[in-house]
Task: structure prediction
Amino acid sequence: MKEQLQMIADEAMAKMEEVQDIKSLEEIRVLFLGKKGKLTGILKGMGTLSAQERPIIGQMANDVRNRLEDAIQKTRSRLAKKEREERMARETIDVTMPGTVIPRGKKHPLTLVLDEIKEVFIGMGYEIAEGPEVELDYYNFEALNIPKNHPARDEQDTFYINDKVVLRTQTSSVQVRVMEKKKPPIKIICPGRVYRSDAVDATHSPVFSQVEGLVVDKGITMGDLIGTLQVFAKSLFGENTNIRLRPHHFPFTEPSAEVDVSCWSCGGKGCRICRNEGWIEILGSGMVHPKVLQNCGIDPKVYSGFAFGLGVERTAMGRFNIDDLRLLYENDIRFLKQF
Ligand code: DAH
Result:
């Protein structure tokens, strides 16, 4: 029995030398010290021993058990330490490694130009106003002095939803909405989408964007309009840019003018971009018609105002030298990347 105990001890110790993980160590423990383990088996057989042998073997078996328990304990902490170290090594973060690059989007050229336009006018004390794209005929036409059957309606090929509702053809509708709610002084711009039943080509789209401007106060003159547009044109197209007003007719302004800027490409000498004119038309404007003021409950004898409406696409095309309006809507990454 002595030899058996010695063999068990040797075998257990040898296994513990080799064991690699805590789970296998536990299996070894069960194999030797468990209820059906090898050492337990020996102890169970002690009843067959003589009275002299029993305490000696009992003592020895106890020693072996203590040794094994002690060794298991030590091995367990050695393995735990090893496993912890391995995990730490595995989970180390190298903070000097290059980061994961997340592709970043950028602003669309129309948005870029719109931001610039807003900044210029906010700098001059304007507020931003908004109105609905699905609009009442009244705001889009009637209140702007364009009654039913007025020829000016033909110029704006309109998407009618029904007799009273249209997709707004111009942001001028917001002028009326603002004046109905707020009394002068009024100083607003209104950026927004407008809709016209036009076929798509290099300069036309059924959906495009405008920025409307409106100033109403006592003593507002055409001089204020011109000065304002000069600041705007120089801010967007450069300090050397000039503007030119050509007499025109809009039902909601009197007098009215179309406004050109000196060509951003050739500076006015004449080139392909300005079709040799030296000038490029970018907006319509004028002094708010007394009837429009009246329609909104503002007394034209006390107040006057100017208004303008400018095309954002056209401005963006000038600002970035884009020669086809369709590029602004096709979402071709190769095009958009350039801005
Ligand atoms: N609404 C006009 C258009 O779409 C542009 C315009 C002209 C706006 C004169 C104005 C204005 O505010 O005073 O063609």
In short: The chain has two domains: 2-90, 109-336. The longest helix spans residues 53-90.
